[in-house]
Specification:
- The protein contains 23 helices and 36 strands.
- By secondary structure, the chain is of the alpha/beta class.
- It folds into 4 domains: about 35-320, TIM Barrel, CATH 3.20.20; about 350-430 and about 595-715, Rossmann fold (3-Layer(aba) Sandwich), CATH 3.40.50.1700; about 450-540 and about 545-595, Jelly Rolls (Sandwich); about 760-870, Immunoglobulins (Immunoglobulin-like, Sandwich).
- Strands 13, 14, 15, 17, 19, 20 and 22 form a 7-stranded antiparallel beta sheet that branches.
- Helix 3 packs across helix 13 (about 300-320), helix 7 (about 160-175) packs parallel to helix 9 and helix 14 (about 345-355) packs across helix 22.
- The radius of gyration is 29 Å and the shape is globular.
Length: about 900
């Protein structure tokens, strides 16, 4: 006889009375269909769970399927609660399977187009679900406070309103496809330096006006499912244990009803009392929830907090239809049908973002687009990123479909056709050549530098590096004359190797040593310096395919180390490598010598002399840690200057993740900022250069003239910090607000961007609507081609400031993007919410109207005001 053991009826079932309880019980015994998701009683589910089942809903675990996601919540099979899988972005879904490589989020922000942001979000949500994921870890809505931050590429710029509008739209897109969005990182996670330990001291007003509005919009305007708290401290406590952030602002003021998740290993003591719900990754010991589990029922207050956290997760899952098969007694996990990944549909959005987000910074004498006059005599493209697409940089992104990626060189040739000769010179070699055996020396005692040096001086010494493999059963060392294990010579999957020896160079100078890999990772130790290639072990054991901006011609990741070496000296080196468990390791140890560097530059300059037009492609690495300079790396400034010196018809195309300085700007005719344009970027750049599309992007952040022209200049407490305190004592003067307040002239201001069309604005007006205003202006295309324009509306500060309330000269209050055919005209109406006329009161802890008449500026950038009107808000 089958024995049926029933769990105690939940309190809610008991309240329904005996008849209701019997009806529910009979339904379970009869195998009745599960309740619809909207009818699932989350309270009953929580009451029916064991302690371990509750912990499984709020603590990360190892994904048994190994899909390559960032995190995993196991769910509760007994109750029909499915697992939750999270995937990194933000520029596409990072998983074991391929996904569309989208342009960097700052390119999306540069479009000033919330509608496009929603379509971008739909790609993320649709592909996340198609790849078995449920939660997208994004968008990243921190403010780009410092241009040196390596993750500026993942943000939406320096303005809170623009970031809020683009971020909220992306969230709506993600969640419209049935995936959850997890907006990050609350709060002020604006730099890499000190983020794990430093206390970021920020005034309440600066938080409310600058750093929190994008999170507020994510909650109030987009209904975001989850919020990720950050690593750094904010005004004392760590962000994940900061009650003012996680409870006072997030839940009490904004009404957030989703769940809060820690950044990976960011959960701290007191976090769960402050408002944290889910601990990630949950696989490191000891976890905070693990400690709670050890105390168990002996801590009723902790159990109450645990139930609260589980409830928040389940309520959100119910909202997304993930509890359709759940039951307090016996459930069966039911997940809404997953879509099929539509590569072409996603690629179309990627190309649109890359095209609309590109910013034409300069275009003297209308050098661009490359018309008949510019193409006559041939076009020369210079730079490694002309022949290899710099789709993205760093990690936490999709790497795209390789068969769809087309270089700008090939795309431009296809676009302009065979009648236009397009040549290419690399200018700067990012790949190098295999280091020859003559430069390498090995010894039986590789740790003895003196012995190595003595052997290397002998004319009969055997050349190469000694190799030890951890998997060799006899432990015997081999000698490799060169390290070039590519193609058929790849090393076996699952292995680990170490090479050691001396490097000797024939001539003194600057060398680029390069570790090039595929199918694993490698680390080079040279004297006291170490560089490493793409990681293994992250995201369920999935290695990032590459970390360099572009790969070698045969698809290897490149990690360079620039060193100055002296001829005749012997430099000790050690190189270790590990192959993925299921993939052979390709590895090459290469270099670029001073002679090779000079040759590449000379060939590019000579070719530029005779070209009708030269387009130099330059790039920035976009990798951690934060850089101390905004100059282009790898001698690219010198390359551009040398090309411009011999050909006045020079344009520059930039693939960057943050602002860069341009000491050569006055010597070139045009500059096109393509950001990191994603897998379709080659076609998008070709369309823009050839004139098939007109640039319409606008800068979402200010470009300084020099490294020493940022808010951290001369103020070490604002970046490096003092005694582990980072002072945000600039207050509300961030980005263009800081430049305007100080009267500093930037290289390019916030909102700047040119195009191939011409527009005229007229009849600016402001009218009161409700408790706010509407700004309106007529825009007419007076050019000869279809093009887009962006109207930015700024609110100037009142002539008389309230006592003790410093305000920036102007702040973005609204914007609108419009595309018109030649002769087309439209009347744009841009809402100006009452919030734009308010400031945060630290005394009253709330928003208060700033009295007085305000000038409303209709502008093409923060420094290019075209028309004005007046507005006086009602008290």
């Amino acid at each position: 006889m089958t024995r049926i053991v029933l769990a105690p009826l939940p309190a809610r079932a008991r309240r329904r009375g005996l008849a209701g309880a019997i009806a529910l019980l009979l339904g379970v015994l009869a195998g009745a269909a599960p309740l619809r998701a909207a009818e699932v009683d989350v309270g009953a589910l929580v009451a029916a769970m064991s302690l371990e089942e509750k912990l499984a809903m709020v603590r990360g675990a190892v994904d048994p399927l190994g899909l390559g996601g960032a995190g995993y919540i196991a769910g509760v099979p007994r109750h029909g609660i499915p697992p939750l899988r999270t995937a990194d972005g933000p520029a596409g879904i990072e998983a074991r399977a391929d996904a569309t490589a989208l342009p960097s989020p700052e390119a999306l922000a540069a479009s000033f187009d919330p509608g496009l942001a929603e379509r971008y979000g739909r790609v993320l949500g649709r592909e996340a679900r198609a790849l078995g994921m449920d939660v997208v870890l994004g968008p990243h809505v921190n403010i780009a406070r410092l241009p040196v931050f390596h993750r500026v590429k993942d943000e939406f710029g320096e303005d809170p309103l623009l970031t809020a509008r683009i971020g909220a739209a992306e969230i709506r897109g993600i969640q419209a496809e049935g995936a959850m969005a997890m907006v990050k990182h609350l709060a002020a996670n604006d730099q890499f330096h000190g983020q794990d330990v430093a206390d970021f001291r920020i005034s309440e007003r600066a938080l409310a006006e600058i750093h929190l509005p994008p999170f507020e919009a994510a909650v109030r305007e987009a209904g975001v499912a989850s919020v990720m708290c950050a690593y750094n401290r904010v005004n004392g406590p760590f962000s994940c244990a900061q009650r003012d952030l996680l409870t006072t602002f997030l839940r009490d003021r904004w009404g957030f009803d989703g769940f809060v998740t820690s950044d990976w290993d960011a959960a701290r003591a007191q976090a769960f009392g402050a408002g944290l719900d889910v601990e990630m990754p949950g696989t490191t010991a000891p976890t905070w929830y693990g400690k709670l589990a050890a105390r168990g029922a002996r801590d009723p207050a902790a159990m109450e907090r645990l139930d609260r956290a589980v409830t928040r997760v389940l309520v959100t899952m119910r909202r997304f239809g993930l509890l359709a098969g759940a039951s307090p007694w016996r459930g069966r996990a039911v997940v809404p049908p997953r879509p099929v990944l539509d590569r072409d549909r996603s690629a179309a959005v990627a190309r649109e973002v890359a095209t609309r987000g590109a910013v034409l910074l300069k275009n003297d004498d209308e050098l661009l687009p490359l018309g008949a006059s510019g193409a006559r005599g041939g076009v020369l493209l210079v730079g490694a990123t002309a022949a290899k697409l710099a789709a993205g940089a760093g990690v936490e992104r999709a790497y795209g479909f390789r068969d769809r990626e087309v270089s700008p060189l090939d795309a431009l040739r296809a676009t302009l056709g065979p009648t236009v000769r397009i040549d290419h010179r690399v200018g700067i070699d990012l790949e190098g050549e295999t280091i020859p055996a003559e430069a390498l020396t090995w010894s039986d005692t590789p740790d003895d530098a003196a012995a190595l040096a003595a052997r290397s001086a002998s004319p009969s010494v055997e050349r190469g590096l000694v190799r030890m493999a951890s998997h060799d059963p006899d432990g015997e060392a081999d000698v490799d004359s060169v390290l070039d294990f590519t193609g058929a010579a790849a090393l076996p999957a699952g292995g680990d190797w170490t090479w050691a020896g001396l490097l000797t160079v024939p001539t003194s100078g600057v060398y680029d040593l390069m570790v090039e890999t595929s199918g694993g990772r490698a680390q080079l130790q040279f004297a006291d310096r170490t560089v490493s290639s793409a990681r293994i072990g992250a995201n369920g054991g999935v290695a990032h395919p590459w970390s360099s901006v572009v790969t070698t011609a045969d698809g290897l990741d490149v990690v360079p180390l620039r060193v100055r070496l002296a001829a005749g000296h012997h430099y000790q080196i050690r190189l270790t490598a590990s192959a993925q468990a299921d993939t052979p390791l390709e590895l090459r140890f290469a270099w670029v010598t001073p002679q090779a560097r000079e040759k590449a530059l000379r060939e590019a300059v000579e070719a530029a002399r005779s070209a009708a037009t030269v387009v130099v492609f330059a790039h920035e690495d976009g990798l951690p840690p934060d850089r101390d300079t905004l100059a282009l790396p790898r001698d690219q400034d010198a390359l551009i200057a040398a090309i411009a010196a011999v050909n006045p018809r020079t344009a520059v195309v930039l693939a960057t993740g943050r602002p860069v300085t341009m000491p050569w700007l006055s010597r070139v005719k045009a500059v096109l900022l393509g950001w990191y344009p994603g897998q379709e970027g080659g076609w998008a750049l070709a369309d823009l250069l050839a004139g098939r599309a007109s640039p319409s992007g606008r800068l979402p952040l200010t470009f300084p003239v020099r490294d020493d022209q940022t808010l951290a200049t001369g103020e070490p407490q604002r970046y490096r910090g003092l005694d582990e305190v980072i002072a945000y004592d600039e207050g509300v003067f961030v980005g263009y607000r800081w430049y305007d307040e100080r009267g500093e002239a930037p290289l390019f201001p916030f909102g700047h961007g040119l195009g191939y069309g011409r527009f005229a604005w007229s009849d600016a007006a402001v009218s009161a609507v409700g408790d706010g205003f509407e700004a309106s202006v007529t825009v007419r295309n007076v050019g000869t081609r279809t093009a887009a324009d962006v109207v930015q509306v700024y609110l100037a500060r009142p002539e008389t400031l309230p006592e003790g309330l410093p305000m920036p000269p102007r702040a973005l209050a609204g914007f609108a993007r419009v595309e018109l055919p030649p002769g087309g005209e439209t009347r744009l109406t841009i809402p100006l919410e009452r919030r734009r006329f308010e400031a945060w009161s630290e005394r009253e802890h709330g928003w208060r109207l700033v009295p007085g008449t305000r000038v409303v500026e209709f502008a093409a950038s923060s420094r290019d005001v075209r028309l004005t009107a007046m507005a006086t808000p009602r008290p």
